[in-house]
Amino acid sequence: MTGQIDLYGVFVPALLAWALAALVLVVPLRVVLARAGFYRLVWHRPLFDLALYVVVLGLVVHLAPRFVS
Length: 69
Description:
Layout: E1 4-7, E2 10-13, H1 14-36, H2 45-67
């Protein structure tokens, strides 16, 4: 794996694709947490959201080689 994805001749860093995949997973997760009232227990919501995104991005990067051949 070279770390780049070829999109019709344009090389895009794989991290960009993983970051977009993590964003797609985090947005509904934030909605679920907000509706469940979880954010009432959180001291600093933007900081928590950033940490949640970083954790999900780490999971996506860790699991990506299993799904990409």
